[in-house]
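hey team, just a heads up i'm posting the complex here instead of the shared drive bc the drive is being weird again. everything in one block, sequence lines first with there labels, then the predicted structure for the whole assembly after. its four chains so it's a bit long, scroll down
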Amino acid sequence: MATIADVAAHAGVSKSTASRALRGAGTVSAATRRRVQHAADQLAFVATPSAARLATGRTHTVAVVTPFVCRWFFATAVAGIQHELARSGFDLLLYDLHQPAARERFFTQMPVRGRADGAVLLTLPVSEAEETALAGLRVPMAFVGDIVPGSSSVRIDDRGAARLATRHLLNLGHQRLALIGGDPSEPMGFAAPAQRRAGFDDAIREAGVVVPEAHVAAGDFTAAGGAVAMSQILAAERIPTAVFVASDEMAFGAVHTIRQLGLRVPQDISVIGFDDHELAEPFGLTTVRQDVYRQAHAAARSVLDTIAAGESASPRHRVVSTELVVRDTTARAGEPPSAHRTIPPHERNTA
Amino acid sequence: MATIADVAAHAGVSKSTASRALRGAGTVSAATRRRVQHAADQLAFVATPSAARLATGRTHTVAVVTPFVCRWFFATAVAGIQHELARSGFDLLLYDLHQPAARERFFTQMPVRGRADGAVLLTLPVSEAEETALAGLRVPMAFVGDIVPGSSSVRIDDRGAARLATRHLLNLGHQRLALIGGDPSEPMGFAAPAQRRAGFDDAIREAGVVVPEAHVAAGDFTAAGGAVAMSQILAAERIPTAVFVASDEMAFGAVHTIRQLGLRVPQDISVIGFDDHELAEPFGLTTVRQDVYRQAHAAARSVLDTIAAGESASPRHRVVSTELVVRDTTARAGEPPSAHRTIPPHERNTA
DNA sequence: CTGAAAGCGCTTACAG
DNA sequence: CTGAAAGCGCTTACAG
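-- predicted structure starts here --
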């Protein structure tokens, strides 16, 4: 591995000018710049990151901290951030706080310290202690889905979007609604579930509709959890005709449960999800779309901009719009089966 | 930020012994060790990573390079690696090669150099040039899904698993099979699609069954791609009674297309996927399971072990088993609807 | 067991 | 425009 001393020697200059020439910093004559560059190419020189970092204090790295990398929302967000970072030549350090223990270890040990110039936190409401720990990092941060004073944020209007989803059900004439939301005692303490519940409540209150407790169930934002929650609701004496599910992944499970019990979607029960998961379209799930990739992208951009601008930049708070996407899992209350759900005059197997 | 000189001063020792005491290296008397530790705690000392790296040459970081973080397989693998790394106090640097341009940039610039002590590469068949570029890193590597001489690998028997899936269809009495596989001209050049195709071919050859070209279509391993591929197959003069789809995500799309056209799964067409995606269970998709989390975990472990052992450790090649998981999307050829698919005597809506 | 010194490989005022 | 020197903050032989 060639060092900068090697390229300096090859080019017949000092380390100082070699360094300056390579980084385009300071003033270097065009001729020497060329000589140095040539020497560097010859030797396939590339600066040792740790040495450059120690000297400059900059890491050209951004940390991403997330619960559950493996879930759609977070994986999509990580992709969005990675792509934006790559465009600026920044590396991405990933921290997954999948368990309370991992979360605690992260906030007490602060492995990010000295390893990143900025951080983006995904959907992670932080306690006061955690907030001060993060502040101790003294690097720009952006939050996706939460607002923390002093840091930038990008999010959607969860409450408004949930209200929109619920109104869609109401507008279709449904009176017996159900909700599959989040578990308030969930250890990560996510903010979105409560917001979505509030939006649901807004809508039913406005419509003067009452939802019995038996029609409210909590899932863990997985399909399996949604399936279980749905079966709890369907065990009620009187079952709903429509259900708002606070995530598409749970909605997939809910739809499956309904069908397993021999009921039809949407003829017997309408289902609307939340997210516009990549499988929502192929599955015909009605939902409200949020653009996760774009939110993540914007958060990364904002961190990058703040890094470039130095401490000066003031935090930006952005709200990304959502959109109702009507597909095949919602229908008017009491509607007969739609035409394309019946057996069509298509070629059939005879094997 | 306190430096090691600060804690040395506080403890009344030299930097050398302070360093030794903190890292448990060399020999330090119990008493001084305690004094130093106390001083470090007081000052909330934590070694500056770049300085430690420059001095030792170790980064305590592993790089993960993947196409598409946002797809289930890769996101799950990243989670598996992250969790194993965290247990050993290693950081994870993530590189997403989602586009040919990003891939080329990665292999020419080699951003991993000097930033990681090891790497795990996900499902990425490398060219010779790329292989030598990686070798230049001089760090232990493990591949998930591919074999590269000199590096460890963890994978499944794609060909055998595909054969298994196809035999399941054959065993159910199906004679008119179809295949939704990968596109051989896909730029990433993944190895699995060809292997799965080969396994399919093995099975039909053994069974003496012939599959017309019209019953073979390529998808891009997304649900949308699977849906399109399925509709191409269903445009054939004579449609199949069963289809092997090389990934669950494509299978989801395929099932959707079949149902959209008014045909039933599995009564009219049986569908088997590949992966055991987390949504396969809630959706009742028959498939062959591969444990991605475990493969990733093992790959990370193997890199970590090699790092710990130094150059001495010789590469390990592991093949993780797969398993047929029969659910609701496959049935005997010509089978009538199964009981639980018919309308059951359950409470119905009357709204 | 402990300390002084050199070194890891860069960068950056400061002179010239 | 260029060079000598100091410094970034650790670690590690080498003496003692």
